[in-house]
Design a protein that fits this description.
This protein is α+β, with helices and mostly antiparallel strands. It is built from six helices and six strands; from the N terminus they run H-E-H-E-E-H-E-H-E-E-H-H. The protein has a six-stranded antiparallel β-sheet with strand order 4-1-3-2-5-6, sandwiched between helices. The longest helix has 31 residues.
Amino acid sequence: MQQQSAPTPVPLYTSTTSHASVPTLTTSPRACPENNQLDIEKIEQGADMRTTVMIKNIPNKMTDKELLEFINNVCPRRIDFLYLRMDFKNGMWCNVGYAFVNFIGVQDLLMFAKAKLNEKWNMYSSEKILQMSYANYQGKEALVEKFKNSCIMDEREEWRPKIFYSEPGPNQGLPEEFPKPTHIRRKERSSFNRGALFVPGIPINHRSCLTMNPVQQLSSQHQGAERRLRRVHNGSKSHANAGSLR
């Protein structure tokens, strides 16, 4: 009887999709697929040339200026995109613990990773350990395209994504103006769909207006005016009826 040969091992799945073309942006530090894990050895071997990362476990009191200074202490003026996401939901002046950063070159990312990956922040008495993973959107151009039509660009300067000059020269790494939106309707949808944005310093009973688009705000104003007119009318009518009973 002929002996059957052992089955051929099935190779692990490897994606052939370009990282720059992935249509979703990682927005949670918990969502880190295996192919998004940062491996210093692969970078050194030239096997991974991606430059956009999510820096995680950031101390919540840290500002974007402090994060920029933290990065510049390792590789000065070598990033061209930074977005430290803030905690709008709870109305607190703090970040949510992660940021998206694009390094100008892969060697800049390597330098930062070798210096800071798996190290304590040593800031704000925090015991957090710096972690990093790759973002799904790769490169400054893709990131700008993602955010320029977002409602976040209408918020306070310190809450917005920042870009910096990429090209070699005296301006490299210095702040650059963010491009204007190109799809107003998309921006309006972004504003409408984002949910409540609780801004510090604004009373709770005034916060609902922040979730309305311009049409909703106008409708709300009209409804408020109609209610005030009804109250005045009903008050006058009650006064007249009281006078007729005398």
